[in-house]
Amino acid sequence: MDFKDTPEEAAFREAVRAWLAANGQRRTRADEVFGEGLDEAAKLARAKAWQAKKAAAGYAAITWPREAGGLGGTAMQQVIYQQEEAAYLVPQMIFEVSIGMGLPTVLRWAAPELKARFLRPGLAGEEIWCQLFSEPGAGSDTGAVRTRAVRDGDAWVVNGQKVWTSSAHFGDYGILLARTDRDKPKQEGLTMFIVDLKAPGVEIRPIHQMSGDSDFNEVFFTDVRIPDQYRLGPEGGGWKVMLSTLMQERLSVGGNLPTDLHVHLIDLARTCTWDERPAIEDARVRARIADAYLDQQGVALIISRGLTALSKGKTPGPEMSVTKLVAAKAMQDISSFAMELAGTEGLLGADALGGDWPYLQRLWLGSPGARIAGGTDEVLRNVIAERVLGLPGELRTDRNVPFRDLDRT
Amino acid sequence: MNFDFSDDQRLLQDAVRSMLAENSTSQAVREVLEGRATHCAKVWHNLNEMGAATAALPEAYGGAGLGYLELCLVAEEAGRHLAAVPLSSSIYLAAEALLRAGSDAQKQRWLPGIAQGEVIATAALGGSERYRTPQPLAFDGQCLDGTSPVLLDGAIAQLAVLQVGADLILVDLNGPGVKRTALPTVDPTRPLAQIEFTATPAERLAAADGAAVARRVRDGAAVLLAFEQVGGAARILELARDYSLERKAFGRQIGSFQALKHKMADIYTRIELARAHAYYGAWALASDAPELPRAAAAARVAATRAFLFAAEEGIELHGGIGFTWEMDCHLYYRRARHLAQVIGSEHAWRARLADELIKEAA
Description:
heterodimer; A: Butyryl-Coa Dehydrogenase, subunit A, domain 1; Butyryl-CoA Dehydrogenase, subunit A, domain 2; Butyryl-CoA Dehydrogenase, subunit A, domain 3; 3 domains; 13 helices; 10 strands; B: alpha+beta; Butyryl-Coa Dehydrogenase, subunit A, domain 1; 13% strand
């Protein structure tokens, strides 16, 4: 048992380090982010330039075969690259859906001429992809999508609305889950398409989140025409295609939680006063610092177990499913406690407080979203109960019922 | 990254699991629970004979000389099967204290007997909480006087290592002036006793800083007990899961109700967190890493919480039948409580963890 690389992994890490040192720009502060001070257009242009370099070196899709633009590498190499890249100023989130969902779905299901058309520009960041599954009436219950695609000769005509689409405001293409048959039970009447987000009839509106940011969009479709050759998989096979897209996530290793949150609490507790003494001397405060560590270190260690499986060429086990459940709630608890440490002053806006506060308040305002995105806490508990512990699925009233009848109620 | 046990280590674990499944049965554990035996002699004999209990003791002293990672997996199985044996007293505490603080002569004199399972030893190495204040122990260089704190397996042990001030005192319990009192306990499968000493011949363990050795041994024991706790918690969750698939109410398996599913998912989540911390503790213990105090405290707290939660909710998930003497649920409930407090409570260890974290962030 150890935390070291195998010789092969160490060699790969060295190669990645050398490449990053030659091509990237190191972070100078822990909270420095890519493109600080640039406007959106300039930031996007710089992000695309970085992605092009990365793709040329094969690092855009390390686990993909070489002929598809990848490196023919392992999942562990992918993780090593990410670990090393984390020290550099690189774009966050912009290409994540392209690389993690859109392009793998094209690679798996599209005709050869479409792969030739889309994969290379996608990996190089010239075109950005979105995922269009969720709808206002289809969140956790994704099979309930209502967006219609009706055949018209060699094309399909799409009407409806998608929601929680990240990157759509600068996106070029999307994978779209639409209903093509309302007479079949809900999951059987779905079909997956590639959709051109610049096509006539596509309207994109940013969502104003509770945090004040706008990372997601609503996407409206009004008589949008999609050529039949843009269909991914068979008509009525959309559910299966979607599952293959989400399967990509199973190889990733779980939730994300910074591992130094307890240090922020310690720093704050040294500054704040409780009962006329430094809060750090208070046993209640010290207990909460220990709790913060237990959650964040626990998540990091579970992920280390997942990486061990990857390193041995295995698929990480079901224990990975708990990381996101623990991480999102811990983020909320820890950031809330940080605010409590400061008493009434902890209610002031981050701008008035300075220091670590912008970071801590961002965690606090972002954590409700983290508890929902990628599966709510409740959905995750069902997943653990059913897939890990083998307990029965939920009683359902929508099986074998034509979607037309479900939609009426 | 190789944050897991090796295939060979898992083979040993499987062998221990098979042996315990056969011998540490509910019936065998209940012999101790109901006072017909002081411990499961057959299980203790087998654990020693197969080199499982002594996995971490050097071969020079009659141990199996494997290592602490192996002993951690033995501990996990002991917890899983509620083994009613003096593993923690004799091996995690007393043998470790002897090994780390004893002179070569002291080690040669006692460790081989412990390794063979013939000498059962116990230890009291400090801990912060007290309810009753015994007549404090005093050692005058030759003899021990006073009353011990409550001692694990104190009624059957032949040897004790006791912290007296900053010294570790070794005392042969077959010597003169030893009066043992077996005490009733909430988990009779892991008995406690108190010993009164009157001019009992004793000797100091050789190490200069007995308190530091005691802390180190307690850290190691915290990791090993965390494995016992994880093993016990995982087993009670399995029992509850199986029962919820079998039992029907309102025309359904009760395991199909989301309230029960989510409760079991939460138990699983706490166990996996505890397991991760226990593994990290195992790594720190086996590699003698400077992170051991932090890793051990974290493993102790996480595993204590996981087993208590699993044991409490394990009864709840069974409903009324879980509250009967005949069902094994209460054996886990009792053991979870025993393990939660036997080398200091969760509260004390969480304070220790905070101390370590704050020290590191200086």
